[in-house]
């Protein structure tokens, strides 16, 4: 089993969903975790539930000042930072004409600028230590685009570029930067659009079924991939995109062709 024994990790967007599951698994594997989010009550409750190895510190990832507070909290409480998981993100679904400038900016700010500010905030500490692992949570939409998701795809493709450039820039300081690209997560993220999506139920089901491993990806599998990249099991992986998507981005599955 992979271990995170003795490591200190920051996980953003950890109040609920994938981030909360990552924080929980990290604690189980021996890490001490600082959870960041903007949902303060939920974030505090999640940290309390995880016990002594976890603490909550508000961090709106779009604010460099709040990143400074989060890094200071990690250093004060634990004296080091081994892992940063840039997991916080927001979604907007809608075609170009139904996407306002404000919505587009918001997605770029939270999903792309946020991780940039996070990397910039932890690098001095990791450089001092000569080691660190940064895991950016992208999406299947970081690897293959989809209509109706222009803002989200732009933000997640951008995050992938950021990961690779950073990996090259700080690799010699012992800091690794990788992306996990899942086809799934917390349904609450896309809940506001579910009513409309249900109008295209057949197409939506086909999207999830026409892949090597059909169906949506459980959060546990996403967490497994994040643990791998956070841990020393991936010491020579940097600048990679790890799809956790049942083969959705591997290519095209055509039902019936297996029987030709
Ligand atoms: N839900 C999915 O189907 C899905 C699919 C692929 C990838 N992802 C990615 O997985 C990651 C986790 O998402 P999730 O599925 O757990 O959804 P989620 O909505 O439950 O989690 C996102 C978290 O980010 C927090 N957040 C939002 N704005 C923030 C900000 N400015 N600063 C700090 N925190 C902020 C939210 O409060 C929330 O706790 C995201 O990067 C998301 O893009 C999700």
What does this structure look like?
This protein has 260 residues and is of the alpha/beta class. It has a single domain (8-189, 219-241), classed as Rossmann fold (3-Layer(aba) Sandwich), CATH 3.40.50.720. The protein contains 8 helices and 7 strands, in the order βαβαβαβαβαβαααβ. The chain has helices spanning 17-28, 40-50, 64-78, 101-129, 150-170, 194-197, 201-209, 219-230; strands at 8-12, 32-37, 54-58, 83-86, 132-137, 175-182, 241-244. Strands 3-2-1-4-5-6-7 form a 7-stranded parallel sheet, sandwiched between helices. Helix 1 crosses helix 8 and helix 3 (64-78) runs parallel beside helix 4 (101-129). The N and C termini lie far apart (41 Å). The mean pLDDT is 97.
Which helices and strands occur, and which strands form pairs?
Layout lengths: L7 E5 L4 H12 L3 E6 L2 H11 L3 E5 L5 H15 L4 E4 L14 H29 L2 E6 L12 H21 L4 E8 L11 H4 L3 H9 L9 H12 L10 E4 L16
Parallel strand pairs: 1-2, 1-4, 2-3, 4-5, 5-6, 6-7
Bound molecules: nicotinamide-adenine-dinucleotide.
The site of nicotinamide-adenine-dinucleotide has 28 residues, from helix 1.
């Amino acid at each position: 089993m992979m271990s995170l024994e003795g490591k200190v990790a920051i996980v953003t967007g950890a109040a609920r969903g994938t981030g909360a599951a990552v924080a929980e698994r990290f604690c189980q594997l021996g890490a001490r975790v600082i959870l960041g989010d903007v949902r303060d009550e939920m974030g505090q409750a999640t940290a309390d539930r995880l016990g002594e190895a976890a603490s909550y510190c508000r961090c709106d990832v779009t604010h460099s000042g709040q990143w400074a507070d989060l890094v200071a909290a990690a250093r004060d409480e634990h004296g080091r930072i081994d892992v940063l998981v840039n997991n916080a993100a927001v979604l907007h679904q809608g075609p170009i004409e139904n996407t306002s400038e404000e919505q587009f900016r918001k997605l770029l700010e939270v999903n792309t600028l946020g991780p940039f500010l996070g990397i910039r905030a932890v690098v001095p500490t990791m450089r001092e230590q000569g080691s660190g692992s940064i895991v950016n949570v992208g999406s299947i939409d970081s690897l293959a685009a989809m209509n109706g998701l222009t803002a989200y795809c732009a933000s997640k493709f951008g995050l992938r570029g950021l990961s690779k450039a950073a990996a090259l820039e700080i690799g010699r300081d012992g800091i690794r930067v990788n992306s996990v690209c899942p086809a799934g997560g917390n349904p609450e993220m896309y809940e506001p659009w579910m009513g409309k999506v249900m109008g295209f139920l057949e197409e939506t089901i086909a999207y999830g079924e026409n892949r090597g491993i059909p169906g949506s990806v459980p959060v546990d599998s996403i967490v497994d991939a994040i643990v791998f990249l956070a841990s020393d099991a991936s010491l020579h992986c940097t600048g990679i995109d790890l799809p956790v998507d049942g083969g959705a981005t591997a290519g095209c599955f055509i039902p019936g062709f297996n029987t030709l």
